[in-house]
Amino acid sequence: MTQQNTPDNDATNLADPNTDQSRQGSASQQLPREHHQHHHEHHHDHSHLDDTALRVRSLETLLTQKGYIEPEALNVLIDTYENKVGPRNGAKVIAKAWTNDRYRQWLLSDATAAIASLDFSGRQGEHMVVVENTAQVHNMVVCTLCSCYPWPVLGLPPTWYKSAPYRSRVVIDPASVLAEFGVTLEPHKKITVWDSTAEVRYLVLPERPANSEHLTEEQLAALVTRDAMIGTGLPLDSSLVSL
């Protein structure tokens, strides 16, 4: 039986420098898990990512010192777009797919157009692919080279998604990573890891919660967590919806 402890858990026990492998490393081939690797290049200058982060932090410090911004207010704003506003867009997409089979088929065949039909499109969402969880397969999403992420439907990427431990370990041992997020799958279920790139962003279509047939599309959307759409979590239980 599938279990989940927390809906949007920022797992903190992912750091293990000894597990850092390249996307072409042989370690991922030693496990009975499927990793969809992409050989086209990310259009990013990865050598400057650390420099960019340093510049952003320096600018934040300068603006704070001059009194132009309040760090606490900035943290609240980031949290809002990371965990609330952004993921709510994706939740609406998922709920519509759960209640409308025609839309679900469209989403799986042409996710970019299907998502855009709900007015969720733009930068970092130009080419979307939706992968569906089933009774046999559980999907997870990563960007092994940096932090490619579907902003229009998920908002800002969480810190753990951008971390080197997650980017390496989810490819090598996805079941253990899931366990650290409080998710244990049935032994027979295969885990497929999808590697996002500058050209392609993935979104997971979770399985619809059991006993949710009576819920409206809006109520179903309330059950969809950010982590469920990345694959590191599951939707909430339908009993949590207030009728």
Overall pLDDT level? 79
Order of helices and strands: EEHHHHEEHHHHEEEHH
Tell me what portion of residues adopts beta-strand conformation: 5-15%
CATH architecture: Alpha-Beta Complex
Number of helices: 10
Which structural category fits the helices and strands?
Answer: alpha/beta
Q: Which overall shape is indicated by the principal axes computed on the Cα atoms?
A: globular
Number of domains: 1
**CATH homologous superfamily title:** Nitrile hydratase alpha /Thiocyanate hydrolase gamma
* Strand runs, count: 7
- Residue share in helix: 25-40%
Kindly provide the radius of gyration, computed on alpha-carbon positions and rounded to a whole number of angstroms.
18 Å
- What is the CA–CA distance across the termini? 26 Å
In summary, what is this structure?
The protein has helices spanning 49-65, 71-99, 101-109, 111-116, 151-154, 159-162, 164-172, 174-180, 217-221, 226-230, and strands at 3-4, 34-36, 128-132, 137-142, 183-184, 190-195, 201-205.
